[in-house]
Amino acid sequence: MTISTLLIANRGEIAIRIARAASDLGIRSIGIYSEDDVHSLHTKMTDSARMVPGLGPRAYLNIDEIINAAIEAGCDAIHPGYGFLSEKKELAEACAASSLTFVGPTADHLELFGNKGTAKTAAANAEV
To answer: 33 with 11: CB under 8 angstroms?
Structure first.
C-alpha cells in the first residue's frame, strides 16, 4: 500500500521527526495539537495541523477524535510516534475499522507483546 497523507498522532520532537521523514518520502503530513499546544513547533512542521479537543496529554489519547481528524484531512494512514497510543491495540483496531493504515504493529501483536508474560511465552515458543 502506498501512503499519500499521514496523520501524526503525537507532538513535539517525535512529530517533527516523523514529518521530516514523511516529507523526504513525498508523503503529505497532518499534525494534531491539543488546545494548549496551538503554538507548538510541531504544528508548523507538518503540511497542516488539526486541533483535537482537550488539554495536554489527554487530547493525544482520544482515539475517536484522532480518527475523525485523519478522516476529515483525507489521510490514508496514522503514525502514532512513541508513547501515547503507540502501544494501544485500540488505535490499530480503530484504524482498521476506518480503512486507515496503522503505521506500526498489528493489533494482535500489540496485545500479545503488551503483556510481558505472554510475550515471553511467545518468544520462547518461537525459540527466540
So the answer is: yes
